[in-house]
Amino acid sequence: MIFKWIYILGRNFRNPSSKVIHRFLNDSQNYTLNQLENFQLNKLKELVGFAYQHSEFYRKAFDEKQISPSDINTLSDLQMLPIITKNELITQNSNIHTNFKFKNTFEAKTSGTSGASLVFKRNEYCDSFNRTVINHNYSIYGVKPWDRNGYFWGFNTSLLHRLKTRFFDVLQNRFRVFSYSTTELNQFIRKLNSARYIHGYSSSIYETAKAINQGNTVKPSNILMVKGTSEKIFDYYQPEIKKAFGTKMISEYGAAETGIIAFECPHGNMHINMEGVIVEELNNEILVTNLHMLSFPIIRYRLGDYIKLASRETSCPCGKEHLVLIDVLGRIGETVYGIANIYPSLYFYYIFKNLSENYLLHLEYQVVQKKRGHLIFNISSHLTDTDKKLLVKEIENYFKNDMQFIIKSNTIFEPTEGKKKSFISSIHNERQ
């Protein structure tokens, strides 16, 4: 009960708009697709008008394209507006921020795992909307925001930041892994017996599930939800996770600068948060517009992921008519260098997807490139001769004779900070 009151006090202090937003989301979950898109259009008009009036960057960008906010009359008119990149968010940071004096804003920061960290101010309503959307989706699984939970996420290694992290973890009825030593992991697993949900890096949750299944520990019996975020959830994760926790892992997709983009329902569909964002698919790339970020407008933002959207006619047994995101295929911009040509790192996704779908060969992998024209395929499990031949065949299908490679089985992956990386290259900045 004490954690419920701590949550309510914190919410009322930081996010006073959340009550109104909560009531709205309870209604909008039953909206038709037409109603959702009408809502999006109205919010888009407000956003574009506000950005033009209060952001030097957007006013200049719209004027250069001879676009007026009054030109936005349909959702498809969004395509007239310029696309914005992460680099522009960083280099034009002060000009993108609006000059409107909000009653309250919060500093937000991206993780920087893509190579560059972004710092920006998020207005209270936007912050409240994002948090309320998360809690609304949690409620579908019977989870309350103050429930006991285990957390897999990055942290600062300095003593001061560790103490600060522990303090806020206590307030949020949360515990996390600070290292993956056997002792600390076993302590974390024991604490899971009192948890109602688990969330964080999907690869870390998977590794913990394996440790539980392979050990003599009692499996957690009160877990209502296992949520993976920030990383792709591979199909081969699910049997281990369901065996360990009694439920499959669901997916949440979003970013600090965009807010929650999509959340998986109990029927396995990733519904787009249409009340909060507009998602466009352009040549398989995702473009995101945050409908509530007025302090730092995010309009047609190239997030850097390949995605696949379901058709508008796709229906879901859960009853929601929100559009569905089929898959997040991988990061854009990570280049693989062959002997003569360059390739997208998305190739690795398809290589291992083909093995999984065509041969039921589910492999956990990490590909490393240290020199041009050469790849190291690290595989965590044992490979039979047949498995290896199938993998070689798929690699050669994609890279032909332009790549030399070696395959290592039973390997421990190269450590990375926070997210597990499926592709690591030390020659990203080379030029052809």
Automatic annotation (TrEMBL):
Domain of life, source organism: Bacteria
Gene3D superfamilies on file: N-terminal domain of ligase-like (3.40.50.12780)
Protein name according to UniProt: Phenylacetate-CoA ligase
Record organism: Gelidibacter algens
Statement: the UniProt record of this protein carries the keyword ATP-binding: no
Molecular-function GO terms, alphabetical: ligase activity
Keywords: Ligase
InterPro entries in alphabetical order: ANL_N_sf (IPR042099), CapK_Type1_Caps_Biosynth (IPR053158)
